[in-house]
Structures are given as structure tokens and as C-alpha cells.
Amino acid sequence: MINLKINGLEVSVEQGTTLLEAARFLGFPIPTLCHMEGLSPYGACRLCVVEIGEGPRAKLVSSCTYPAQEGLVVRTANERVLQARKMVLELLLASCPQSKVIQDLASAHNVRQQRFRQEHEDCILCGLCTRMCEEQMMAKAIGFRGRGETRSIGTPFDIKSEECRLCGGCIYVCPACQLRCTYTEPDKAVCGGCANLSPPCVEKENFDDMMCYMNPCVACEIDKH
Amino acid sequence: MERLTSIEDFKAMQDRLVSERDYSKPSIVIPAGTCGQASGANDLIRVTKRELLDRGLTDKIRLRITGCHGFCEAEPSVLIQPTGTFYPNVKIEQMVRIVEAVRDNQVLDDLLFVDPATGKAVEKQSDIPFFKTQVRTILARSENIDPIRIFNFIRNGGYSALAEVLGKGEPSQVVEEIKRSGLRGRGGAGFPTGAKWELLANQQNGHGKFLVCNADEGDPGAYMDRSVLEGNPHSIIEGMLIGGYATGANEGVIYVRNEYPLAIKHLLIALRQSRGFGLLGDDILGTGFSFDIKLVRGAGAFVCGEETALMRSIEGKMGEPRQRPPFPIEKGVDGKPTAINNVETWANIPLIIADGAEKFAKIGTNGNTGTKIFSLVGKIKNTGLVEVPMGITIEKVVTDIGGGASGKAKIKAVQTGGPSGGCIPAERFDLPIDYDSLAEAGSIMGSGGMIVMDETTCMVDVAKYFMSFLKDESCGKCFTCRKGIQRMHEIVEDISEGQGTLEQIDLLEELALSVKDTTMCGLGQTASNPVLSTLQYFRQEYVEHIENQRCPAGVCKALITYSINENCTGCTLCAKTCSEGAISGDKKQRHVIDSESCTRCGACVTVCKFDAVEVA
Ligand SMILES: Cc1cc2nc3c(=O)[nH]c(=O)nc-3n(C[C@H](O)[C@H](O)[C@H](O)COP(=O)(O)O)c2cc1C
Ligand code: SF4
Ligand code: SF4
Ligand code: SF4
Ligand code: FES
Known about the structure:
The complex is a heterodimer. Helices cover 24% and strands 14% of the residues of chain A. By secondary structure, chain A is of the alpha/beta class. Among the domains of chain A are: 2-108, Ubiquitin-like (UB roll), CATH 3.10.20.740; 179-225, no CATH class. In chain A, helix 2 (79-95) packs antiparallel against helix 3. By secondary structure, chain B is α/β, with parallel strands linked by helices. The radius of gyration of chain B is 26 Å and the shape is globular. The model of chain B has no long low-confidence stretch (mean pLDDT 95). Chains A and B meet through strand 4 and helix 2 of A and helix 19, helix 20 and helix 21 of B. Flavin mononucleotide is lined by residues 185-189, 191, 214, 216-218, 302-303, 305-307, 340-342, 345, 447, 521-523 of chain B.
């Protein structure tokens, strides 16, 4: 067994347990996006970061991939961690504002604006679909290609895959393409009122600049039409 | 080729090689690394061979073709041994005269290097300012070695460090020796090599252990590893053999980037030769110690230099970093405990064993021992590879070795550490060059890139360049690395185009810190350094771009205009040169540039002989 300390609490876990599993075992919530039980950890979204170590050597690591180690000291929600998560979410919103999953996470973390040039991408390259395809559907029909800016997901040579059984597993797990949101034109801010019932959008004149995906809204009275 | 079956055999051969040699016979040494060949060294070699044959001098004068000696500015160059006479930038016609002069024991004064500071000719290589301040323990070895001749290497003491450790039969003493030398990894992070080896030696693993030589060298502009591989491949092999013996590893891989064909060629030849002599493979020198080395060609991605990505690449998978721990030392190539070291780190090993840890530790400073090779480029007079003791000040490298500013503009910063490094301003040139001081100043040592920048270099543009490089080279796995770098690039680009806002500077800083914090591997964790260090030391330049819509260095195209001042003689040269037809004016009249159609290519500035084209 391995003994470590999470947010001041001692815990013993088995060799090979990740920090995410250990923290959740103790009941500490850590948001995740590219992690899913039953799929191998990958560490792509960086939302699950936690702080380990002490003093000047303290650093953030992704809890879904980092193995528990003897004597490790972990903080799952200090200022540095929360700040980092907010930036991750702001970047996610800037790239993929239509995702309900991302919107919910953003509003739950009090992300009220996104300051980058708005993009509309339909994939955040979290790798859930490729792992689903390979590890659960045993098909390995899709995978990552390229690196950096040109990295993408697809079948080899972009032709219809013989391996794909059209199971839909990849679509099912995708956090980006669940187009459940009803917004029309997202802009720079997120309302988030629906998630935390404390709407920032009470002022009518500011409302036009915000993203709100509740219609009708349960939190504010503004008529959106 | 006779196989050597004992240490005595080897020593006898080495003694024979040394005693056979007539050291008074002059040698013409021509460096022909990739850089030398590109500047025409092959022609010099051809001419020299012909001259030696035609004049029947083949048994009076030796010709040695070696790897790069470092003084790129002077290539193709010729070095005469044993006198040490140095001829820079030799032309084919001059080569004939040089051969004659060597025959007649003369020095050609008109072909010697002229020190720009004093205007005087300098005969000997060691007296040239560029070489004088250097401590060339690794590079100078290359001068005496023809990389494709193992006899050359052995005659110059090659493989005797290996013979020594095999003869002593105490692997743990080797680890101790390396620890005492204080050698730190030359690949960038500066991890103590002895400590790394000790960890590997202590690993219990029945399936074998692995050593890797990291020769991926992906930093743009850096080529010190290439020059060592090309110029002295056997020293890497010897280093790895000693490492294998010390740690109990039996397999090694040299991971070279595919863009280094000459290095690969020399390595393959060297591996074949040492295997043939029984210096590599099974039962080395009859001692029962076995170690073999394989060469793997890299896929050419910068990120493949990161150790976990490199291991995956060796295994034939996509070069993508993974979570550490487990560290390579526990779980490396094919799951075997693995120690990865940089080319230059390996090249230092035989030197430490041969000369002793104490001698090595005397060079440099406490905690940063030995020498480090830098590729010194940019706005200075002398560019090339320089090997200096650790802890030397930036000032010394830039002024004494580099010869100071190459143009009229003042030097304002050096950039160290390549894309993961930062810019250090001229006010801090008293900083010693060592792992800790550079990191404290917001840069890193990195693998040894050093770019000197003057007032015509725009810091926003520098940050933009590195972000642009990194956004293509990030493996793309971590969202914050991939998108974060793209966003930093986007903001810096906005600023360089005069579209930025002051709030964006704050956002840039906030983002840069988050990217540093939230990414998995060294690439992401250091990717913000170019942005953060330029913001730290040159924030005013960013502000200038935003508030005054001005690029102080005259680089950012959107913010500069070209105009012609009263120096113009009306020579019409610029008008003829401009591909856009943007310059008009009558002969002998002052010309005018039409700002609308000017594309700011700068061609007119280059051609104007009267300094009449101004950038503002
Ligand atoms: C993005 C990235 C690129 C790297 N590229 C190289 C490289 O080209 N050559 C190298 O020796 N080390 C490189 N490194 C460092 C290696 O990961 C590793 O630390 C080094 O090879 C260890 O050897 P050393 O202890 O001898 O320095 C790179 C690291 C990162 C994060
Ligand atoms: S398609 Fe969806 S699941 Fe697949 S990587 Fe992109 S965002 Fe993730
Ligand atoms: S930090 Fe960048 S290069 Fe490193 S694993 Fe993450 S995405 Fe890849
Ligand atoms: S900078 Fe180039 S395009 Fe502009 S005027 Fe000069 S030559 Fe023409
Ligand atoms: S959930 Fe851990 S990095 Fe995505």
C-alpha cells in the first residue's frame, strides 16, 4: 500500500492508483474532461490538475495520469489549481463554445468571460473517441494524426475505415460534438446562471454579449427573443 | 581487420600506432563537417590531394580531413600542424600556394587571419581571439581525428579510457568517478549524470538495461551535437561503452535525427569499425563484457528529443511524451530501465575517465563543472561553435569570443536555450553561464543555442518566431500546450501588427504562466519562456507597439514605413530593385517611396550605397 496526503487527509491506496482515483475516494471533487472510467488515462485536457510537492518545487500535474507515490502531498483545490483550471476552461470556451459539457464546466467554475478570439472547433482532441474505439470497441478505426496545429482525429488516409463498425461509441463519448446547446451566436461571455442560479445577466443591456443556453431561463427574467 | 581479444592486445596496438607516427611531419588539416562542406571544403581537399600527388609530396606532408573545428565564419579553413598556422576562408587558387608553403616550411602572411580589432595578422590558431578564450577539451580533439579512421582515434588516446575501466573491473568506481566529476547532463536540464547512472546501476532487472544517446538536436540553429557526431563518433561509442559497463546495461541506441546524413554515415562507419576490432558487441576485449549499439533515425520532430517521446519513437510508435513517473530509469525502452544522455554528455565521459574527475571538476565553477559547447550566432562578428568553461560570463562570450557587435547597432540581449529559453538583456551580461544562473534569470541553458541580438532585433518578433515554431512542434496532446501556444502566438502577432491592446499583455502573461503550470512535458513547461522573458526585460517594447504603433527595432512590417532621405543621390538603384515598382524619381533626383505599394521587403535598404533609405 502507498500512503499519501490529500488536502491534509492521510490515505492508503494500492500501487498503481492515480491521484484522481485517490482524491475521489476521499470525496474530493476534481473536474475531468478527457478521463472516463474504463478507458486508459491520457492526460490531454489538463482540467484535472492538482498541486503536488512543497515549497518552490511544488508543481501542477494531471491527477488522472499521475500515480500515487509514497509520502506525496497533494492539494486538489488551492488558488493555483483553481486559477489554472479557469484558464483551461477559458481556452476551451474560446475554441469550442457550443459544447454543453464545456459550458457547464465553465459556469460551475465561475468562468465569466473568455478573452481570446472566438473560434468554433468541433474537436478538442481529448482522445476519448480514439480510446473508446480502441479499448472498448476493439476496432482501432480512428486515431491521432500530425502534431501541433495540424493534429487531428481521423481514419488512416481519411478513407472509410474497414475496421469501423459504425457503433457510435466515439460520438457517444465526445464532449465537443454534443450539440445540445440552444444558443445562436455565442460571444465573449458565459451566463452560467442556470448552473449556479446566480445570474450575472440581470442587466438587460449587457445580456446581448453573453452566452446563455437556457431558454427559457430558470434564473433570470430576460426574454431572449 | 584483426579482432582484439584482450586488453593487452589493444594496448600493444595503441603503442604501435603511437610509435609508428612521425610527429614532426607536417599535416594539412581541412575541416569538412556539414558546414565546411557547404562552404567548399571538398574542393580544397580535391586540390590538396592533386597537388600532393603531382608534386610527389604524399610521404612528406599528411592530409587530414576532420569534422568541424567551430570557427564557421572562417570556413573553409585550413590548419597546419604541428605549427598551428591557421588560414581562414581559403579559396581554391590559394590552396596550391598553401601546399607549397607547407612543403617549404613557410607561412603565407597575406592569407592569415586578420584580427579586426587590431588590424594585425595572426598566425597561430590558438592566438586568434575567437579561440583564445575557449577551453576546447572536446572540440580540439576533433582536430586530430579523421572521423572515419578508427586508427586515428586510437592513436590519439581513443578507447584507452574503456580499456582502463575494463582492466580495473570495478563498475561502481566508474559511477563514483563520474559523480565526483560533477558532470551534469548537457541536453538541457542539467541532471547530474553520475546520479542518473547510480539509479540505473541500482535497478534490478532480469531483462536487461538500456542506454540511449540523445542526438535529436531539434533546436533551430543549434548544431554542436552534430559537429561532435560528425567529427568524433568514436568518442560517443566509447562513452556509451563505459556507461554500459558502469551501470550494467548491455544495449544502447543512438537516436539521431534523419536530417544529419553525414553524422549518420560517420556513426555507421564507426560502429562497424569498433565492432570489427572487438571493441563493441560480445565479449569486448575478451573481458566478458558485452554491449552493442544500434542506430535509430529520428522522425524529425522537435518533441522527439523529450525523453519519453524519444523512447516511444525508438519503439516505433508516435513520438508523444507520456506521464513521468514512471521515469525512464524505472521503465524505459521496451519496459527496460533506461538512462538517456545527450551527445555532449557522452563525449565528456572518456575525458573524465582518462584525465580523472578532479581535473574535469577544476574547469568551470562549483556545481557547474567542465565545459559546454555553444553555437554562437546572431549579430556578432565571429559566429560558430565555441567551447567555454561553465560559469564564464555572457559578456566574455559575446565580446571576447564573439568579437562584439557585427554592425553599427548596439547589442541588447542574448537568447539562450532555443525555443524553450529566454532572452537575457545586456545589463545582465555579467551573469555566469551555468544551469542555475540562467534559470534564475528566466532562461535556460538548453542544449547550447546562443543567439546574440542587437537593437535591430524586435523582441515581440522574437517571441512571435518561437511561438510560431512551437505551435507546430508541440505534440498537441495537452490542450493547454497546443491551444495555449497558438493563443500566445495569436496575441503576439496581434501586437506585432499594431492590433494589440494593453489588456492583451496582461492576458498574455496570465496565459503564459498557465501554460507553464498545466502541461505535461518539458516542451510545454518551457514554451512560455520566450514570451515571459521578453515581457520581463523588454515590456516597454510591447507597450510601444500598442500605444505608439511603433516597432522600435524597425522590424514589424505593419508598423514601419520606408522613406528616402537627403542622402539620396538619385542613382536609381533602389527603383530598379523594387519588385513592387514602389519607388519613383528622376535620375540624380531624390527618390520617393510610395508607402501604399511598398511591401516592406527591405530590398531597397540593402542595395542603397548611400544609407538613404530609412526605416521608421
Ligand atoms: C521538447 C524537448 C526537446 C529536447 N530535445 C533534446 C535534444 O534535442 N537533445 C538532447 O540531448 N536533449 C533534449 N531534451 C532533453 C532530454 O529530454 C533529456 O533531458 C536529455 O537528453 C537527458 O540527457 P542529459 O542528462 O545528458 O542532458 C529535450 C527535452 C525536451 C522537453
Ligand atoms: S472528436 Fe470528440 S471525443 Fe474525439 S477527440 Fe475530438 S473532442 Fe474528443
Ligand atoms: S506539453 Fe506539449 S509537447 Fe508536451 S506532451 Fe503536452 S502537448 Fe505534447
Ligand atoms: S522595401 Fe521593398 S517593396 Fe518597399 S520600397 Fe523598398 S524595395 Fe520596394
Ligand atoms: S482529465 Fe486529466 S487531463 Fe483530462
